[in-house]
Each structure stands twice: as C-alpha cells, then as structure tokens.
Amino acid sequence: MNLDRRHFLVMLPAAAIAWKYVLAGTPEASPNYTMTDHWWSMLIDIPKCIGCGNCVRACAAENDVPEGHFRTWVERYLVTDWHMESPEVISPDGGKEGFPAAAEEANGKYFFVPKLCNHCTNSPCTQVCPVGATFITPDGVVLVDQTYCLGCAYCVQACPYGCRYIHPEKKVADKCTLCYHRITKGLTTACCENCPTGARQLVDLKDPSDPIHAFLKTHYVQVLKPQMATGAKVFYNELDGSVR
Amino acid sequence: MNGVEGYIYPNEITLYWSVLIVLYPYITGLVAGAFILASLVRVFNVKAVAPAYRLALLTALAFLLVAPLPLQLHLGHPERSPEMYFTPHATSAMAMFGFVYLWYLMAVLVFEIWLDYRRDIVLLSQSTTGWKRLLYRIMTLGSDNISPRSLVIDHKVGWIVTLVGIPSAFILHGYVGFIFGSLKANPWWNSPLMPVVFIFSAMVSGIAAVLLLYMGITKWRKMPIDMPCVDTTAMYLFYIFILDFSLEMLDLIHRVYEADESFRTLNFMVHTKLYFSQIVLQMCIGTLVPILLLGIVQVTKLPALIRKRIYVVAGCLVQVGVFAMRWNVVIGGQLFSKSFLGYTTYKMGLVSREGLLMAIFLTILPLGILWVLMKLLPPWPEKQHVPLPAATPAH
Q: Which pTM does this prediction carry?
C-alpha cells in the first residue's frame, strides 16, 4: 500500500475515531472467562422472599450505590380480595431496612417482590442510547460505559421497570450490572449471596447443568410486564397478576 | 414524602427531563412553523404574506441557533455530546438529532437565507465601510457576481432549497415528536400520532410567532402594518389550528375510548396535577379561545384595528397553549409512575443550570439574536436592494 505522510496524517484521526468506536462496546476484561459460554439471568422465587432487605443492603455496599437510588429494591404487595388492579404497595427506602409489621386482619394476601434490572434481550434502554454507551454483553448483561455516557437520561425514560437513574455525582446513567465484576470471576451476585432464603438465584441459561432448566420445567414462572416484549430475563416464580 | 402520592418505583422520585426539555420542542416548533410560513410565499405562491417572508426566515434561524442549547445544558456530560456525531447509535432516535439539526441549519436555512440575501450582501459590502464592510465581504463567500443571470440562478436554487426545506422542517419537528412517541415504556408519550401532532402544533406556534413579531416590530418601527399580510397569515393560522386541534382530539378520544391499563392513572393525573396546565391553559385558554377569536375574524367583517387586536391576543394565547402542550407532554409524562400506582412532583429550580431563570434566558435569547440578524440583514421590503422574490420560480 502506498501511504505517504499526507495521507497518513489524514487517516490518523479517522483511525482514532474508529478505535474509540470499537472500544466503546468492550466490557471489562476478565482472564479465563469466555463470554460467549454464558447467558446470565436471575430467578426470583417470590414465596421464598421474606422482605429482610439483605439484598438491597448488600447491593448498596458492593456497588457503592448512592443514597436514595437503587440498583435493586423490594416491594411489599397487599392484594385484597379480587382487587388486583389496585394493590397496596410499599417499599420504604427500597426495602433496605425491611418492612413495618403487616396488619393482622388484612383481608388479602401479602407478598414481597424483589426488583432489579431485567437485563432484557431486546432492551429499550440499549435501543435508545444515542451513543451506544449502554450495551448488552455477549453473555447477556446490559451494562453502561460510564466513561462514554452523555447523561441524557433517555434510557431512564425508556426503561419500563424504573431500574435506571442518573448517578448524582457521576452525572451518568447507573443501574444493576448483575455484579459483572463478580460473575465473570466465578462468583455470584452480592444480592444472591446475601439472600438468607435463596429467593434470588443467579442462573446461566447456557449452562446445561444449571438447576434453572429443571426449575423452569416444573414451575409456573413469569417475567415482569410481558406485554412490553423486551425479552426480560429475570424470571419470577409464582408472580401475582397484580405486580407491575 | 418528597411530593410523592401512592406508590412509585424508588428511582422515579426525581424527574430527569426538566423545563429545558420543555423548551427544546417549543423552540424547534417555532423554527419549523416560521419556515413553513416562509415557504407559503416561495413555493405556494401566497403573495400576500411576502412582507413577512424574510422576517420568517430570520426568525427560524434565530430560534434554530438556540435550539441545541437547552439540550446541552441538560446533559450530565455536555463535553461528550460530539460523540453523537462521531459514534452515533443507529437505533437511537436521539442520535439523529445532530444530523437532522445540521442538515436543517446548514443545507436548508442558512443556504436559503444566503441565496435570498446574496445580492443585498454584495451591495452592502460595497456601500459600507470598516468592520461592516469586512463582515459583508466574508458573508459573500467570494461570490460577488450579481449579474441578472446569476440572480436568476440564485432564485431557481432558492426555490429548490425551499422545496427541500418543507419536508426537512417536517422531519426536524416530526422527529422531535418521534423521540417521545416511540417510547413504549411511557403510555402518556407512546402514540404514532405524536410526531404528527408535534408538526401541526409547531406550524401553529411558528406562524403565530411570526405574526406577532411582524406586527410588533412594524409598530415599533412606526410603519403601517400590511393588513392583507396579517389577514392571510391569520387565516392560515386558523385552518392549521383546526387541523392541529382535530388531531389532538383524535388522540384524546382514542385514549378515552380505548381506556387501556394506564388510563385510570393518566385520567386522574389530568384531573389533578395537570388540570391547570392541560385543561385550563392548553385546551381552554390556549386552544379554544384563539380558535374562536380567529374564527370570528373569518366569518365577520371587523374593522382593521379590531382585527389587529384580535390577532395579537390570539397569537399570545397560541404561544401559551403550545408551550403548555410541550409542558404537559414532557413534564406530565414523568409525573406518574410506570407502576401506574402513584405520582411524583416536579420541583423547578430558580437559578440552577436547569432552572426557571435559565429557561427565561433561553426564551429571550433568540429574540436578541433576531435583533442582531435584522440589523445585519434588514428584512423589510423598503430596505431591500432587490425586489421581493417572485412567488413562482423563474423559468
């Protein structure tokens, strides 16, 4: 190839821009970990959740989540009789410190619903990001490149589940990373590790030996807001129809 | 707790799109509307509006220059915004903003204004002295041939640019509507009608703005107001307003009749938190009253003085109504929880980066820019070195 100095100088900024584009979608490296061997998601077993808030506290401590914002939170539902469209829902401080005692005669059912990013396969947040700072990794985790995010909050508006926020100090989008720094090293997420009842389980859908496959065959599971068709990957066992 | 009613997801307490994002569609709407008014003269042969033709173009440019500022000020990292040009994300509607904006600014508006004023600029570069002479010489871009043949070419090219400019103006503002309308997560925004409603309301606000500016500046210059010009402009404003109102009603009726899972929440919001801005300001004061006023002028023969006063009142009310519409879309869309079980409150700052004073400054700024542009490129017929453009292209 005949490349004189003038052409080289012209091509240099173009190459720099192209390289930056390539780097923008690259997640942090982890040795001995092959991304394409995994497809991460989570199972939430609603009857097992006791609303202790351990998961919320563990997540905040592990990921330095700013006060008043939540990468995961727990909601308590009270559905009285047949009033599925108007449940009473509370989540004081995201359920971080647990919940007040339930009324003894509530004429309905109480249950807890832990929430987190659904790491959707067809995530609306990824679709709308104007610079591609939000992306899905080859192992199925939706991440934000915070060195690249503009902080426009379009992704916050696009998420149907309220899982995103703008970090008050960093001024960029922030959300659950499924503890990517841990799961790529063979660990489970902070919330799963600290759940005393096993209500939250990290699952690898590409691993044939993962118990999730047997669980899905024998239980009735649902994802949140299936009508949104986002390909949500957080599966809920025994999810009540009142949950939004 | 923090202005929250019912249950909202804990990350929803803060509204991330502030009054500046309300200003953004409002300002781009004025641009699109002003340009459409100018195209009435250039492409659709509406000669009566000719006295406001150049003012409409300069108004569009003044507002377009300010349009990206609210977005820049809103970003968490404005210094990274050039990335939208270098590494745009193809599936993002917002990523296209930079390209749509640049296309409209450079390929349509600036080019058309330059073509339209080229002869004036050349003559001014010869008749002025000092820094003004230098400025006009730069503005000629080295093209100082003002022979009749070159002016004919200018005119033909200008006609084509305006023709391209009409769909471009629609794209500019329709695209702004698409940014909201394409979000399936938010039922208040999610509607295929959103881009169309945005375009028509843009035309209404832009035409009304030029009408007000033309009447105000002409009065200030102590010149007679060209009544056929304002009458014709008001007539177009009236008919486009009727279309805009019909589309908004179609959207409303569809929502009420369909009454999907979000309806109860949204209906409650309209009757409480948005009652004043939606029902009172947008629908009654900002839509029904001006339509009625403009309609009265169409069916009666009122004296010129009364007509002028009606146009001023209707024009001001239109601005209130369209701004309220943008407010209700942007802020209203964030007041309710996506759980449909609760509401939050918008607290506007006063002197913050996205506060009230900044919003007022950004609203006034285009008027300052317009004043400079009018000094530089006088839009008035009696100050033109060339006659007004003929309504039809030269053949």
A: 0.91
A95 occurs within a structural domain: no
The per-residue pLDDT for B389 is 45
Domain limits at A52?
Answer: 30-67+117-237
Q: Between B9, B71, B97, which is nearest A162 by CB?
A: B9
Structural domains in chain A (count): 1
Q: Does B184 contact A228 at a Cβ distance shorter than 8 Å?
A: yes
Residue A83's pLDDT is what?
Answer: 87
In terms of phi and psi (left: phi > 0; alpha: psi -120 to 50; beta: otherwise), the region of A145 is beta
Asked whether residue A22 is assigned to any structural domain, the reply reads no
Q: What are the tens digits of pLDDT across the range B176-212?
A: 999 999 999 999 999 999 999 999 999 999 999 999 9
Q: Is residue A17 part of a domain?
A: no
* Distance in Å, alpha carbon of B98 to nearest chain A alpha carbon: 10
What is the rounded distance in angstroms from the CA atom of residue B59 to the CA atom of residue A163? Answer: 42
Tell if the CB–CB gap between B12 and A162 is shorter than 8 Å.
yes
Element of type H or E holding B382: none
Q: Is residue A131 part of a domain?
A: yes
pLDDT recorded at residue A12: 81
B159 pLDDT above the threshold of 60: yes
B339 → chain A, closest CA residue:
A244
A146: domain CATH number? 3.30.70.20
pLDDT for A119 beyond 90: yes
Burial code of B326-360, b = ≥16 C-beta within 10 A, e = fewer?
A: bbbbbbbbbbbbbbbbbbbebeeeeeeebbeebbe
Give the Cα separation of B32 and B22 in Å (integer): 16
Domain coordinates in residue numbering, chain B: 18-242+350-383
Q: Dump pLDDT digits (tens) for A180-206.
A: 999 999 999 999 999 999 999 999 999
